[in-house]
């Protein structure tokens, strides 16, 4: 099988079938930024998902990322969080040719427009449940994605002042926080819905121990990019009510700056409207620091 990017996955599929058995259908899934994702349907048994770390810079760190996802999914088997179950791991890509993680397929679909009040309440409840999970496996301390190399006012900024204020704030260091288990990439792209029910949370490669509000902030930034800062605030308010945690706007600023590209790269935010909404989100959260 060749992917849309022209990758030959023959060895990876052969490896997967040692767990799933012969396959009746194989389909490349859309939406993955870090990996090639395949939906595998065996002749007998339940469908599975094969993650192949094929894209840089994630491939360079893929052994640690896929191993972390495998370990976290095993931890979550007995937790009240719906996550895929790990089936097999080739973290170094020795057999597959690419670092690989095979896992169960959860029901449901991604819906990037679930920003009504009821959906945001359910989303907040899921995130609070994640934060209550005791970390009984070795999970790393969180890493900031707002690297100092990103402290450059983007050329598309309408006002350089808020960006400079954000960089100055981040140089002061984070506030005290109570460490907890965090997803670290919690957003609507990684939540599955069926009707009004959340049927699962996926993409556990960045799971960490860190500040709960960083998860909230990351979800808020993603919501703001698509739907504006007011919708993001409604999610943050729903989470604060559900979890009883006070906002920590420093982490909102950290997350917004994390969306800037490092020098020499284009980054994720390329649409003019999204860039404007990202800056609007920064202005809004800076007012709360």
Structure explained in plain terms:
With 289 residues, the chain is an alpha+beta fold. The protein folds into two domains: 95 residues, Phosphorylase Kinase, domain 1 (2-Layer Sandwich), CATH 3.30.200; 170 residues, Aminoglycoside phosphotransferase (APH), C-terminal lobe (Aminoglycoside 3'-phosphotransferase, Chain: A, domain 2). 37% of the residues lie in helices and 16% in strands. It contains eight helices and nine strands. The strands form three sheets. Strands 1-2-3-5-4 form a five-stranded antiparallel beta sheet, sandwiched between helices. A two-stranded antiparallel sheet has the order 6-9. The longest helix has 16 residues. The radius of gyration is 19 Å and the shape is globular. The protein starts with 9 loop residues before the first helix and ends with a helix.
Strand order of the largest sheet: 1-2-3-5-4
Low-pLDDT stretches: none
CATH architect. name of the largest domain:
Alpha-Beta Complex
CATH class of the largest domain reads Alpha Beta
* Outline: globular
* Structural domain tally: 2
Question: SSE string, helix = H, strand = E?
Answer: HEEEHEEHHEEEEHHHH
Helix content: 25-40%
Tally of separate helices: 8
Q: Indicate the CATH topology of the largest domain.
A: Aminoglycoside 3'-phosphotransferase, Chain: A, domain 2
From the alpha carbons, calculate the radius of gyration and give it in angstroms: 19 Å
- DSSP, total strands: 9
Classified in CATH, the superfamily of the largest domain is: Aminoglycoside phosphotransferase (APH), C-terminal lobe
Distance between the termini: 51 Å
* Binned strand content: 15-25%
Helix/strand-derived class?
alpha+beta
Mean pLDDT: 94
